[in-house]
């Protein structure tokens, strides 16, 4: 059998930042879901993304009782996208299943994801049909964001798809080649392509604790997504510039014609102010846009690693269960 058709190993990757309360509730559910799968060697990989609430100790306790659990601790908080990247980088064999640590993505559905993978799909992504326990502001913001990014990005970013998804080995290999610092994962998943299918699910409320993504952080995340996956705003700036230049030219013609016909009577101070302020505003917007992209170029040019590892604890069962 070729590597492509092997469906015998699955690693559940969970990024956790200050989830000490949720993890003890979540792990038994993951365990039960994995135990219910036939013909699969399974692992759970927890990535501690710089927690400071005892998450690491909780994870160590879980790993001590479950030989299939590996732990990775990052040197500080690098953000969910980097934590997931760190986890996915370590999945050397088989597929990876990404899950939130707060229980919002019900582990009970892992079997359905695996079934789709066995049917030959490479990227099985969960679509949220309901967002229990989220305010209408968040829902409206999310809806607007997906509409905009869907229009702007050349590669698909399915609406309401979270990070709850299963990735086949070849998608994982492809993702490893994308080392950009500004990681908009939802976009990267779409960029690599392969066979994709949606799996609708009900997103549950958090088990415990609070969301780490405030509206401000979500806003920045949205900017990140748009600027990482589209240069449309730059083009918009060009059109804005062209439009104002054309308007200014037309205005200029009118002024010159008026002067030639009726002489120069030094009037039009309000018009001048309006024009100056308008042009100044347009220029500043365009400069800001260019700055956004330049800043990202600067970050990429530094070529820093995406994350740093503090501790890596492979699963106790890894060596014995390799073959
Ligand atoms: N998370 C992380 N690093 C961060 C922020 C969040 O690893 O800097 C993890 C968090 O522990 C959780 C997941 O990312 O497992 C989703 O976070 P959260 O539930 O706060 O986001 P929401 O579900 O509200 O979008
Ligand atoms: Mg959550």
TrEMBL record:
Any matching Pfam family: Glycos_transf_2
Location within or outside the cell: Cell membrane
Spans traversing the lipid bilayer: 236-257, 269-294
Glycosyltransferase 2-like domain location: 11-172
Main location per the UniProt record: membrane
Membrane association type: Multi-pass membrane protein
GO molecular function annotation: glycosyltransferase activity
Domain of life: Bacteria
Keyword Transmembrane: yes
Keyword entries, A-Z: Cell membrane, Glycosyltransferase, Membrane, Transferase, Transmembrane, Transmembrane helix
Record has Cell membrane as a keyword: yes
A cellular-component GO term for this protein: plasma membrane
Gene3D superfamilies: Spore Coat Polysaccharide Biosynthesis Protein SpsA, Chain A (3.90.550.10)
CDD domains, per the entry: DPM1_like_bac (cd04187)
SUPFAM superfamilies reported for this sequence: Nucleotide-diphospho-sugar transferases
Family in the record: Belongs to the glycosyltransferase 2 family. GtrB subfamily.
Protein name stated in the entry: Glycosyl transferase family 2
Natural source organism: Pseudoxanthomonas taiwanensis
